[in-house]
């Protein structure tokens, strides 16, 4: 059995993903994938698999890299996104994740899928990447940057390992300024970020990530708000989480149903956040 890391923030991340609710929910509802889906107009909110594949294809389109390009997945989980980029889009993907049980499962699944030659995974912290300078043509995060305890340090590492002109794509949440939403919404935001180990989200107000990218030496190409395209899944999660969240409140065991709580709170206070795609090139103009 793996042991939690010593770092306080990494320990909180480990505890969040290692809890039974997270392991069971991600596996049986999303097949192990840990990101939202992209919905086209008219698609049912219950089309999880289709929507997630569409989100991964949108990532590939934003990277816009040729077949064989070397890409880093910063916070790869069990590697579903990496395998999608390798298998459907011909990219050569290396994934790092702080959780050893994720890496073990990622390597197992890649071997089973026959993708070990184009996907590889290792334990690693994206604040201190174990790679040489200029190692990758592209790099992406998929809802993992909010877990960062030091966003500027992480962006500096992204810039270091990316080649000059390399592409960085980040699918991440941002936050509405506190004065523009209710006290209840702000309290919910703080609780979700604390329970789900997402300290960076509290500081990533709308527009802040693009400013940080520029400060880190990136040239921001575009930022696109796709909240409306992922909201159907947030709506579905809110429905799924209603009963377990109620049980948690009644029994005083809400800490055991963090995902259900997050699903309910995120949808109830959807004015407090957005979901965007941030695309940048390494090296300022």
Helix/strand/pairing class, anyone? alpha/beta
Q: What is the CA-CA span between the terminal residues?
A: 48 Å
Radius of gyration: 18 Å
**CATH fold-level name:** Rossmann fold
User: What is the average per-residue confidence, as pLDDT, rounded to a whole number?
Assistant: 91
Shape: globular
Strand content: 15-25%
- The helix content, as a percent range, equals 40-55%
CATH superfamily membership, which one? Vaccinia Virus protein VP39
Please, how many domains? 1
CATH-defined architecture: 3-Layer(aba) Sandwich
CATH class annotation: Alpha Beta
Element string (H = helix, E = strand): HHHEHEHEEHEHHEHHE
Main sheet properties: 7 strands, mixed
Q: Helix count?
A: 10
Task: For the largest sheet, list the strands in their spatial order.
Answer: 3-2-1-4-5-7-6
Give the strand tally: 7
Query: Uncertain regions: pLDDT < 50 for 5+ in a row?
Result: none
Describe, in plain words, how this protein is organized in 3D:
The chain is an alpha/beta fold. It has a single domain, classed as 3-Layer(aba) Sandwich (Rossmann fold). 46% of the residues lie in helices and 19% in strands. It contains 10 helices and 7 strands. Strands 3-2-1-4-5-7-6 form a 7-stranded mixed sheet, with helices on both faces. It is globular, with a radius of gyration of 18 Å. The relative contact order is 0.14. The model has no long low-confidence stretch (mean pLDDT 91).
């Amino acid at each position: 059995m793996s042991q939690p890391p010593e770092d306080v923030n990494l320990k909180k991340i480990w505890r969040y993903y290692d809890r039974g609710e997270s392991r069971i929910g991600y596996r049986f509802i999303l097949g192990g994938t840990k990101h939202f889906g992209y919905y086209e107009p008219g698609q049912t909110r219950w089309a999880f698999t289709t929507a997630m594949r569409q989100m991964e294809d949108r990532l590939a389109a934003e990277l816009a890299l040729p077949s064989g390009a070397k890409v880093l997945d910063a916070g790869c989980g069990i590697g579903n996104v990496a395998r999608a980029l390798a298998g459907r889009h011909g990219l050569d993907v290396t994934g790092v994740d702080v959780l050893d049980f994720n890496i073990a499962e990622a390597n197992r699944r890649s071997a089973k899928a026959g993708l070990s030659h184009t996907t590889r995974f290792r334990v690693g912290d994206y604040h201190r990447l174990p790679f040489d300078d200029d190692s990758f043509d592209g790099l992406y995060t998929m809802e993992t940057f909010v877990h960062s305890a030091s966003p500027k340090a992480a962006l500096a590492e992204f810039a270091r390992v990316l080649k000059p002109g390399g592409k960085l794509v980040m699918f991440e949440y941002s936050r509405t300024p506190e004065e523009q939403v209710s006290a209840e919404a702000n309290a919910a935001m703080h609780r979700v970020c604390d329970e789900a180990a997402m300290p960076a989200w509290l500081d990533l107000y709308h527009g802040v990530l693009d400013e940080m990218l520029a400060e880190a030496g990136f040239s921001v190409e575009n930022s696109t708000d796709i909240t409306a395209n992922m909201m159907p899944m947030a709506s579905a999660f809110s429905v799924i989480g209603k009963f377990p969240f109620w049980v948690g409140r009644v029994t005083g065991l809400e800490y055991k149903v963090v995902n259900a709580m997050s699903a309910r709170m995120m949808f109830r206070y959807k004015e407090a956040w957005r979901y965007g795609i941030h695309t940048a090139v390494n090296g300022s103009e």
